[in-house]
Each structure stands twice: as structure tokens, then as C-alpha cells.
Amino acid sequence: MEEKDIKKEKKEAKEENNQQKESKENSDDEINELKKEIANLKEKLKECEESYLRVHADFENSKKRLEKEKIQAIEYASEKFAQDLLPALDSLDMAISNIDNQEIDPKEAINKLKEGINLTIDQFIKAFNKHGIEVIEIEEGSEFNPHLHEALLQVEDAKKKSGEIVQVIQKGYKYKERILRPAKVSVAK
Questions:
Q1: Domain count for the chain
Q2: Distance (Å, rounded) from C-alpha 107 to C-alpha 180?
Q3: CA–CA separation, 49 vs 59, rounded Å?
Q4: CA dist., res. 9 & res. 16, Å (int)
Q5: What are 63-98's pLDDT values in tens digits?
Q6: CATH number for the domain harbouring residue 139
Q7: Domain limits at 83?
């Protein structure tokens, strides 16, 4: 029986050895598969990092470009308004050159100058209105409003009630809903 046992043990040892070899080969295959998977993951990570860097650089460039455009928009915000005021300035220049170049009666020169100034004021008002700037309208006998008016004087006026506006000394202007300059007025005591 010993010989059978020895053969059996040798056979079992041989089978165990074959299983170990097989297991080792399987382990080597698994290790190689894992190494390939790690290499693929490293490659994907590298691609993702490069993609992130490109996207981040694009974002930074866009941010800088938008900031530059914002600064330019602020710097040139008044450009359109200035262009709309140029015709009024041209009218004033023409009025002066016409008076200097013509030898006319002083009364006629004053009338033409007055007419030219009135046309120029109209051009200014049109340009202002186009950009949301309006004159603060004050009607005869209206009440003093500290949000719209600035009282420069208080005067005695028997025809007016206390707090009524007697005279507009300087027109006021508003831009949309904001007051650019209150109207300067005299108010009845």
C-alpha cells in the first residue's frame, strides 16, 4: 500500500503543481490585464487633464476678453451722445461765422443770433430727449417739491401762496428717473 500511497501522493503533488502553474499563469494574465487597464486609465487621465487645461485656458481668455469689452463699453458709453450733440455745436459755430462774415444791421444781427441760439437749444433738447434726458417741467403756480426743485430765494408775493414757485432761475434736468440737476427756483413766503 505504500507504493500506491506514494504514487497517489506524487499524482496529487503533480496535480497540485499543475494547478499552481495554472493559477500562476492565470494570475500573470490578470496582472497583465490590470497593467493594461492601468495604462488605459493613465492615458484617459492625461487626456482629461489636457482637455481641462484647454477649457480652463479658453475660459480665462474669454474672461479677459469680456473684461476688456466691458472697459471699452464704459469708456465709449458717451460716444453716441457726443455724436448727437455735434450738430448743435456746428450750429453755434455757423452762427458766429455768419455774424463775423456779414456786415448787417446790429438789430438784424441780434435777431439772427437769437434765432440761431433758439434753433441750437432745440437741437440740444432733441439730443437730450433721444438719450433719456428731460427738462423738469414747472408749471405756473406749482408747489415747491424738494425732490425736483432747489429753492435759492424766498420772496414776498401777494399773488402766490406760501410754498408756490414764483420764478424758475435755472432749469432742472432728469435722466430717466434720476435727477441730474434740480430746477433752481424762487419760492413765495
A1: 3
A2: 37
A3: 15
A4: 10
A5: 999 999 999 988 888 888 888 889 888 888 887 777
A6: 2.30.22.10
A7: 78-131
